[in-house]
Amino acid sequence: MNGAESLIRTAVSAGVEVCFANPGTSEMPLVAALDSVAGMRPVLGLFEGVLSGAADGYGRMAEKPAMTLFHLGPGFGNGIANFHNARRARSPIVNLIGDQATWHRRYDAPLTSDIESLARPVSGWFRENRSAETLSHDVAEAIAAATTKPGCVATLTVPTDCQWDPVGDAASPQLVPKAPTVTIEAVEKACAAVTSEGTTMLIAGGYATRRRGLEAIGRIAAQVGCRLAVETFSTRLERGPGLPTLERVPYFPEAAEAFFEGVSHVVLCGALDPVAFFGYPSRISRLVPDTLPCTTLAKPTDNIEQALEDLAAALDAPASVGTPNRPAPQLPTGDLSLEAVGQAIAALQPEGAIVVDEGITSVGRYLPASVGCPDHSLLSLTGGAIGWGLPCATGAAIACPDRKVIALEGDGSGMYTVQSLWTQARENLDVVNLVFANDIYRILQIELHRAGVDNPGPNSLALTDLSEPAIDWTSLSKSLGVPAARVETADQLVEELGKGIAEPGPCLIEVRMP
Amino acid sequence: MNGAESLIRTAVSAGVEVCFANPGTSEMPLVAALDSVAGMRPVLGLFEGVLSGAADGYGRMAEKPAMTLFHLGPGFGNGIANFHNARRARSPIVNLIGDQATWHRRYDAPLTSDIESLARPVSGWFRENRSAETLSHDVAEAIAAATTKPGCVATLTVPTDCQWDPVGDAASPQLVPKAPTVTIEAVEKACAAVTSEGTTMLIAGGYATRRRGLEAIGRIAAQVGCRLAVETFSTRLERGPGLPTLERVPYFPEAAEAFFEGVSHVVLCGALDPVAFFGYPSRISRLVPDTLPCTTLAKPTDNIEQALEDLAAALDAPASVGTPNRPAPQLPTGDLSLEAVGQAIAALQPEGAIVVDEGITSVGRYLPASVGCPDHSLLSLTGGAIGWGLPCATGAAIACPDRKVIALEGDGSGMYTVQSLWTQARENLDVVNLVFANDIYRILQIELHRAGVDNPGPNSLALTDLSEPAIDWTSLSKSLGVPAARVETADQLVEELGKGIAEPGPCLIEVRMP
After folding, report:
1. Nearest CA in chain A to B88
2. pLDDT reading at B361 higher than 90
3. CB contact under 8 A, A479 and B456
4. In this structure, are B122 and B31 located in the same domain?
5. Which residues of B touch A101 (CB under 8 A)?
6. CB-CB under 8 Å, B457 with A35
7. Arithmetic mean of pLDDT, A302-329
8. Are A47 and B387 in contact (CB under 8 A)?
9. Do A489 and A351 share a structural domain?
10. Is residue B329 domain-resident?
11. Which pLDDT score is estimated for A73?
12. What is the ipTM of this complex?
């Protein structure tokens, strides 16, 4: 057994099943070990940003880490944007980065670089392996760190010689520490807040937005009648009958000012204190008004489900809550519009759908339209780094082969990691990719206007326009092995989306936005 | 005038003409300043790796920096792989990274990250701007650092509020320091080496491989009859009548052992002491045998042209050297092969061509085939981070609109930054993209074999194979606005390449490799 084989053995014993990989020369012993040790499924991507986003999507749905395998600093560099999103999502991921042989590193060969400096900003745990003998132990620690709830990105560099050198044995998986229980005082303070005079708002985040947490939140709300909110971009928001409907904290600071009007107390339940994505002249950074009392029931890293159940118990909340009567979404017809897009998806998405939302300005009406939908999971862009939707959908489909994945993707964002389609075809993944083609970075034209540029000049327009040349998404998708269709009316969207949902395997629908 | 406008004014005064950009919200004042201040051409890319590679290609050909404009840490992260190549190439580049407003940063909004940690590994110069008043001064320093010969990647973070805050004036461009002259002792030692008993080998790198340096090398060789070599991957190698032919230092260490046989002295002329790309069991790291005397005439950062001319003068070398009679390349016919590919390109490339080589295993015969070609520049993958060829060709074409660019690209590498084709179409760049489609990461199958895996298992094959699904390069190219054709014989390649060279604007030829 060599170091690489000991690493794979330990990872398989710890329950890691998938390796999202684009290896190079320095990873060859690990590649060979994927054949000599059974139990790990390799998934190839044609660009590392596909794989880092896929690992994020996989981690959100599987609630355990996949491995990634990348080629030195530049290979990892290509994955950084989506690892940034994964860090903000607290997704469990174990990264392996192949490195120069320990004795070769000092020669500063062309592919050598400071991997630690690149990896630290997106990693909650980082280590440089230094010998074959400690390699399987190091990966066991990485897996334990990544798996500690809610999860984190754990990164291990693996020199080539430590992969090929012989070792005696493979380390056992490590015990994964439990998330800390919140104090009785925190529960009591939250209890006092929700039972105080005026309107209390709970803001849910992290594991509070999965089924167990949401059921407790529903019971609390049924007992005390508070407002329920969710952080703007959720790692994973469960929705469906029996679960409470949450208002989304607004994206723009001026909208947030209106949002918190009439609220007398905020309780953070696994959410961070919400802040604006960007600072604007004369606008607030922190979204909750400084005059508003704000209590933390649980931090994102706490055992938030337990804290919510403790709060429900302290309030003597009912054991279960009846489902409100929510109308089923209706199929749209006629011209395409933001309303029609939201309605079509909501009306057609099947039970158990995983909806991956990077639709940016095109899907603003989907969230209200889908309130009455059957059970589904909604994954959002937690870190703001675009090019995440198609990769995340790819990983989510690998984690949940029995569920239909629907990726809502902007054309600008989609072009960042379009290579995802090839992996979807290769693995025959059950993903319907909806690309909303408006031939523009519309959010940037909105932001130009917000920056006071009401009549953008030719250079500003050139940097926000995608229409010249037009991108033929349908041909592009087919060229990478994914069948595709173009739709220009609501009726065509309904027809193609219906077909895409009915048929197994990946497809792409180019939605020509007006 | 605001900070952004002062920055653009200073950059334009310093001679910066092009800004490769993919901006976001935090860069809006800089985008607007590209309209309110004249003289800077913005070039949009649909992915930052396109832009960082384009800035590299531009810098190699223009011998002055372009600016880039990226959106926070994740946007910059997407450019890291090609900035790694640019760092190894010592290309002049000035990066602007938009950052959160100074007063918003402490809130750790979702897109906030440690930009310095990400940027340092690929930057020769780094600064965080902290006020609008110093912004144009900071960019003047960045430009001077980037422009100091041979060049470097200079990175400046620019908080949004420093872009929009008012300022009094724009700083003047800074004086650019000259590269240091080498000492008389270094010239004398090199002189002694080349006139000593036995065979001396000069290894050229950096600016030694451009016209002025090569002319001096030719004169030296004419006088003393030494062997002439060039580092394996050149930033820019000038070739053509009147310039000496250089042997390339081999890639694999075992080939290097044979290469240096019979050599009694090595003189480094702007090249680093060559090392193997990777360490292999029982193979050398440093390619020049430790027993061989090795003298440095000039480091890559020295004034190498002057040093070579001083050496030629010290040797009393002839003022100019006659052109050896080199046969013109012949057109191939029949089946496609490595020979046919090399011959076809060599036979058809026009005078002044810029050949960008990321053909990896498909273009091994091009270098010898093209010895008799008219003047051309050859750009190589200096840092080993793949996905560089199409972007570099894009930037080279912007730097040299009167020259034909020929990109030699592998299918695996090409898929990394395929979005480059869209920018080529948008800017109507004169690039012939040859994609060698063998449906495989062939270099990795070679490396698997070198690692002792003679019968790769299904997982090893899956991680090196690109055939399932087949990538339809012709459709892919057309979908992004670049006309394309597929060729399966040498005659078809000759026909399509001839057409591509004759016609202006970008095109792509999918070369189906046997």
Report:
1. A110
2. no
3. no
4. yes
5. 278-279
6. yes
7. 92
8. yes
9. yes
10. no
11. 98
12. 0.97
Q: What pLDDT, on the 0 to 100 scale, is given for residue A361?
A: 86
Domain of A20, in residue numbers: 3-164
Question: Quick one: pLDDT at residue A75?
Answer: 98
Same structural domain, A14 and A81: yes
Last residue of one domain, picked from the residues A164, A196, A220: A164
User: Do B16 and B149 belong together in one domain?
Assistant: yes
pLDDT digits (tens, 9 = 90+) for B183-196: 999 999 999 999 99
Residue A303 — very low, low, confident or very high, per pLDDT cuts 50/70/90?
very high
How many other CB atoms are found less than 10 A from the CB of residue B428? 14
Judged by CB atoms closer than 8 Å, whether chains meet at B448 and A28 is answered as: yes
Q: Say what the pLDDT of residue B325 is.
A: 75
Among the three residues B107, B131, B164, which one is the final residue of a domain in this structure? B164
Residue A261 has a pLDDT of 96
- The CATH number covering residue B421 comes to 3.40.50.970
Tell me whether residues B279 and A416 touch, CB distance under 8 A.
Answer: no
Model confidence pLDDT, tens digit, residues B284-304: 999 999 999 999 999 999 999
Of A25, A80, A471, the CB nearest to B77: A80
Same structural domain for residues B251 and B391? no
Residue of A nearest to B119 (CA): A118
User: What is the secondary structure of B63-127 as a DSSP string?
Assistant: SSPEEEEEEHHHHHHHHHHHHHHHHHHT--EEEEEEE--TTTGGG--TT---HHHHHGGG-SEEE
B84 closest CB neighbour out of A28, A73, A233: A73
- The dihedral through the CA atoms of A80, A83, A88, A94 has a sign that is negative
Residues A58-81 have pLDDT tens digits of: 999 999 999 999 999 999 999 999
Cross-strand pairs, A68: A20, A95
Residues B291 and B349 in one domain: no
> Coil, strand or helix: which one is B478?
helix
- Contact residues, chain A, for B468 at CB < 8 Å: 426
A80, A278, A444 ranked by CB distance to B74: nearest: A80
Q: Decide if A170 is inside a domain.
A: no
* Both tokens assigned to B335: 């089946």
Chain B residue nearest residue A161, CA to CA:
B281
Local confidence band at A508 (pLDDT 50, 70, 90 cut-offs):
very high
Contact at CB, B466 and A419, closer than 8 angstroms? no
How far apart are the CA of B220 and the nearest CA of chain A, in angstroms?
Answer: 29
Which residues partner with A398 through β-bridges?
Answer: none
User: Which two three-digit tokens encode residue B514?
Assistant: 């046997």
Q: What is the largest CA-CA distance in chain A?
A: 70
Distance, in angstroms, between B251 CA and closest chain A CA? Answer: 11
Instruction: Provide the token pair at B275.
Output: 């090392």
A57 with A379: CB under 8 angstroms?
yes
B463–A42 CB contact, under 8 Å: yes
Instruction: Say if residue A286's pLDDT is above 90.
Output: yes
Query: For B425, which of A416, A469, A474 is closest by C-beta distance?
Result: A469
CB A34 within 8 A of CB B459: yes
Check whether residue A156 and residue A189 sit in a common domain: no
Total beta-carbon pairs less than 8 A apart between chain A and chain B: 305
Interface with A, mutate which of B22, B30, B46, B126 (most A CBs under 10 A): B46
Quote the minimal CA–CA distance from B451 to chain A in Å. 7
Residue among B80, B444, B459 minimizing CB distance to A24: B444
**B173 occurs within a structural domain:** no
Contacts of A103 in chain B (CB under 8 A): 279, 285
Closest partner residue to A25 (CB to CB) among B104, B278, B480 is: B278
Interface test with B, best of A25, A155, A427, A445 (most B CBs within 10 A): A25
pLDDT (tens digit, 9 = 90+) per residue, A164-196? 999 999 999 999 999 999 999 999 999 999 999
In a shared domain, residues A12 and A119: yes
CB A405 within 8 A of CB A356: yes
User: Mapping DSSP to helix (H, G, I), strand (E, B) and coil, where does residue B11 land?
Assistant: helix
CATH number at residue A306: 3.40.50.1220
Whole-angstrom Cα distance, residue A464 to residue A443? Answer: 9
In a domain, A40, yes or no: yes
* Helix/strand/coil for A176: coil
Number of domains in chain B: 3
